[in-house]
Amino acid sequence: MPSSAQWLDQFMEPSAQALTRMLSFPCPLEGPQTSKKSCDALRVVGREDFIAMKAFAGGPQDLLDARQAIAAATAPLNVDLLRELAKGFGRDAQAVMEELIPR
After folding, report:
1. Quick check: pTM over 0.85?
2. For residues 38 and 49, is the Cβ–Cβ distance under 8 A?
């Protein structure tokens, strides 16, 4: 199982695969204190990545967030991807993910 630092590192420097699942939006900040250097775009993690991170965190609010993300999905979840991502977080996250995946 990865240490907390290893887990955090993978999101500080996302993998090429994770980058392909991220959504990018123009910088929402405007005004005299915002420069182009400080904010080119707002990156948002993909749905399956978000659910997997919440499964790994495992707190009551995290699990509620994951369940709400699953319930709000307008497109089918990539269950194979969810399982693969959870595998990277260790057995505890895998077990939580299996409980979260809709049957």
Report:
1. no
2. no
